[in-house]
Structures are given as C-alpha cells and as structure tokens.
Design a protein that fits this description.
Shape: globular
Protein name: WYL domain-containing protein
InterPro entries: CBASS_pafABC_assoc_protein
Organism: Gelidibacter maritimus
Strand content: 15-25%
Helix content: 25-40%
Structural class: alpha+beta
Number of strands: 11
C-alpha cells in the first residue's frame, strides 16, 4: 500500500459516508470539509509515513484522484457547485466491499501495536517465516516455487510432498492461509501455510507451461478450501428465525437463495417445536466434509431437509457424536 493509495481510499470513504467523519451537509462534502477530514487523519497518524500524503489535497490533486477512483473502483464521484462532492445512487459493489475489507484489515495489522489496547485480532496460521508479498510476486510473474510439505492425517494421510510448483493463488479460510499450487505430478493442491510447510523457496525460474487458474471457478462449489469429486447439488436447510437473520446477512455460500422466510421472524422464546419460527434457504455446493463441519457449527439452529442422502450424512455424524456421551 502506498500513501497515494491511502489518500484516494480515504477520499472515497469520506465522500461515501460523510457522517462518520463529522460532515453533516445532506450527503454533500464541500472541498474544505474533505480537506479538514484528511487533515485530522494526518494529525492522528503524524508519525506514520503511510499517512504522509493525506494533506496533499489541492483541488487539482483531488480531481486527479477522483479519476483514479473511477478507474480503480468503477465509482463515479460527482460535484455540485455550492454544495460539494457526492455519489449519486451510491451502492457498494462486491468489488468495492472487497477493497474496503482488505484495506481495513491491512490498516488493522499496520497499527497492530499502537491499537492493541483497542482492537483484538485473531491469530492466523501464517508463521513468521512465510512472507506473502514475494509469493504474490511469484504468482504474478509465474515463477516456480520449491516446497516441502508434510501433511497431517486430514490432508493426505501424513504424506510428504516435495518438488517445484507453479503458485496459483493465496486464500484465507477460517484464520488459515493456503497456497494453491500446481505441478504435473500432484495436480492442483492446497498447501496450508503453517508448520506443515517445512520448506518454501521462491525461485527466479519461470514456469515453462503455466496453467490458467480462476479461483472463483475452481472453488465455485466449495464452502472453504476442500475441493472434492463430489457432484454439487441443491441442499435445502431450515433455519430458526433468530439465526435466519444472521445467514441472510452472512450467507453460508455465494449460491445461497432464500426459499421461505419464517412466518414469525421475532419471537421472545426459541421454541424449536414451533414450525412458524423456521425459514428455509438452499445452497448449491459439494456436500463434503467441510460442508458437514459448517452445518454442525450452527448447532440446533439449522437442519438439513434434503436431499435425503445429505440429511443421512449429517444424522450419521450426529449419532457418532451422541454415542461419545453415553
């Protein structure tokens, strides 16, 4: 991240949500108010070089930044004389949500020491010996990586994997980072970047016959990192009203569709025997072990209703769990 990127990021954030920055002008942001908000951010981070260019905000610079914002984020910021800057019909796109989230996460880590009394972050699998920036560079320029990976039982039955791979993608799933990589012998494999990765070296050797990789298409029917040969299918899940709201805002999977809302959305008591508190969603994915773990995570708040073989798959594991406590 550069100081210029951060300035453009904050210009977009301030204009798109001015009230957060103390600007109450009916959705408009006059240039002096924008400059004042940027000044305050600079003062709050006076010793941080990343914020160095927040006070470079002449009208000419802001105009240039707005063109960059339009190019980067496909977001058009307009200006109305005597009122200020505004975004007409503003709706955050998925691309913009992703930029916001990644930038905020970066800033949280950037300020980890000074903000530690105010923010608690989760530990991830990423060890200090793993540096993501050179890995991203290797993916970008299709450089081979040499690695040694000693899997656990759940990976591949303790199999050791060594060799040269084309790095394809980095993915974070439930506080664990994975390197998706490929070679002819192993195919595409998800390597967890934790203690299992006993050696990782980035070479300057270009991949001779690189494969194309689209992360969305590859994981389209997966719920996390596990890719299997199981055919994806529509799975119907009933959800209790209090948790229905959560899954509506935080979908189980990108394919999620609402089949039916609960007839009683707000009830003072959680009576799971009351059919009116149950809504229904459906997801199109591989009903693999990772899907099972996700469903079990929601406890008695959800229940798989179809297909029958997926329902039986969940029941079988629940029976095993109940047997532990007899």
């Amino acid at each position: 991240m550069t100081p210029e990127f951060l300035r453009r990021y904050y210009i977009l954030r301030i204009i798109s949500n001015p009230k957060v920055y103390g600007i109450e002008k009916n959705g408009y942001v006059p240039l002096p108010d924008l400059q004042k908000a940027l000044d305050q951010l600079r003062v709050d981070n006076i010793d941080d070089a990343l914020y160095d260019k927040l006070n470079q905000y002449s009208q000419k610079t802001v105009k240039r930044d707005l063109e960059k914002i339009k190019s980067y984020y496909q977001t058009v910021i307009l200006f109305k004389r005597n009122y200020g800057y505004y975004i007409e019909g503003y709706e955050i796109s998925d691309v913009l949500k992703d930029v916001y989230e990644k930038t905020e996460i970066y800033l949280l880590h950037h300020h980890a020491h000074s903000w530690k009394a105010h923010v608690t972050t989760s530990r991830t699998s990423l060890g200090p010996e793993i540096d993501l920036v050179p890995l991203i560079h290797a993916i970008e320029h299709q450089f081979l990586v040499e690695l040694e990976y000693r899997g656990w039982y759940d990976d591949n039955g303790f199999q050791a994997i060594t060799g040269f791979f084309q790095p394809l993608h980095l993915k974070e799933v439930k506080k664990s980072w994975y390197l998706i990589a490929h070679n002819k012998k192993v195919g595409i494999y998800a390597f967890c970047l934790d203690e299992r990765m006993t050696n990782l070296r980035i070479t300057k050797q270009e991949v001779k016959h690189p494969i194309a990789f689209n992360s969305f298409e590859y994981f389209k029917h997966a719920i996390g990192i596990l890719k299997t040969d199981i055919s994806p299918e529509w799975i119907h899940i009933q959800v209790a009203n209090h948790h229905f709201k959560y899954l509506k805002n935080n979908p189980l999977h990108h394919s999620q569709k609402i089949v039916a809302y609960p007839q009683e959305m707000n009830t003072p008591e959680l009576d799971y025997g009351n059919s009116n508190i149950w809504g229904e969603i459906k997801v199109f994915l591989e009903p693999n072990y990772e899907f099972l773990m996700e469903v079990l995570k929601y406890n008695q708040w959800v229940r798989v209703t179809s297909p029958e073989h997926v329902k039986d798959y969940v029941k079988q594991h629940l029976s095993c769990i109940v047997a532990y406590y007899k």
